[in-house]
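Our preliminary data section would be incomplete without showing what the modeling component actually yields. Below, a chain of 451 amino acids is followed by its predicted structure, encoded as tokens that our downstream tools consume directly.
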Amino acid sequence: MKNILTLTCASVVALGCATDLSAATPATQQGDAALKAQVEMLMKRVNELEAKERVVGDLTEKEAVTSGNNLNLKLSGQVNRAVLWHDDGDHSNVVHVDPSAVASTRFRVDATGKLSEGNTVGGTITADVRSNAAENIDVHNANDGTSSLNMRIAEGYFDSKRWGKVTLGHGWTAASRVTRHTDLSNTDAISSGTSVGQLAGGTQFVNKNLPSADPAFGATAANKATSTGGAALTISRLFNDLGNGSGREDRIQYDTPTYWGTKLAASHVYKGRNDMWDVALMHASTVMGTKIAIQGSYIHDLANTGAVTAADNLPAKYTQWNGSIGALFPIGLSLQFATTYRNWKVNAAPDGKIYYGKVGYQQNFFEAGKTALALDYGHFENMFLNRGLNDVNIRKDYVGKTYGAGLVQHIDRVATEIYLSARVYSLDGDSTDTARFKDITMVMSGVRVKF
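Predicted structure:
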């Protein structure tokens, strides 16, 4: 490509010289006009070639042009792998994992095109490419034996600066991440806001009132804790900030234009035998050098229905309020507070609640990039119901508490983050429950490479 540009520019210079020579000899006005037209044509061609090289040839742009249309295509993604040590209070091991569904190994394809000034159309496909996902493994079952290609997002949209954005397809609902997106600590390679239940998520709590024993290979220890209906009491179930499902659904969503940093979003889902809809208000701004993010939402989920048997632990209908606020001050200090209130619509079940706080500090201690540190605490109450046959024990509480620390070193030149995280999870049952649970401890170190 550069050779073509060089030859083209040389041609322009040669023509310029020819123009000087022609000045010394008689020339007709018609000849001058033809020569000028040739120069203009060549300059136009130079500009076209430079633009094409910028779009296609320069890998740092991460863009290409799809064949046969005017859509720009962008490929991006990340690889996130970690070494995890986890201890359920009886046993421990070291295992190599894809650490979290929130920051999983994945690839993404975006196609965008301009319909007219201020109006665009686009589509996104995102898929997980995970091996040994942390939420699928326990201390005695340290390898889930699967590598999966899982759809995360498959959606199309129309976006207008004047009228807003309409999205159709499988993706995040409007209210699904309002307790995550106000986390400004720059530690999302580990977790974002209340998504702490993803880390070592498959580790199952141990009932300390039952005798400890080594299970057979591939079996579950007899003192592992389960609900009345037989569901394993794992970290990802009890510390679930999204409740039922992944937060990604087949939905239609509308986002208003952004006014003074504020917008409103609403989405609708139909699944099972009923509807689910939600609405979220989002604000982001910078005031005197301080970044501020505020989000609040309401979820009305009547979609999860079904009969409960002794072996099943089906979700239930609910309504839910979420709210969070985050700030990043110029000195590098960040704060986040988030809360959730869930009203379960089943047999007078106890309400679900989340209270969460995080403090972080980030600074350029090294030339490579920012160093981000964070401490957090979370209280998760009844985000998983103790459902059994006829819901006879549904009023029993599950109260989980967690506190942790994390460090992320950013290496900006190669879009890489190296991280270290430590966390403790504790679980308390209802006073009428004979089960008592041992704490789970985890330490994880890994690397995320973005592209």
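The chain has two domains: 2-57, 78-450. Helices lie at 2-23, 29-57, 235-238. Preliminary results of this kind motivate Aim 1 of the renewal.
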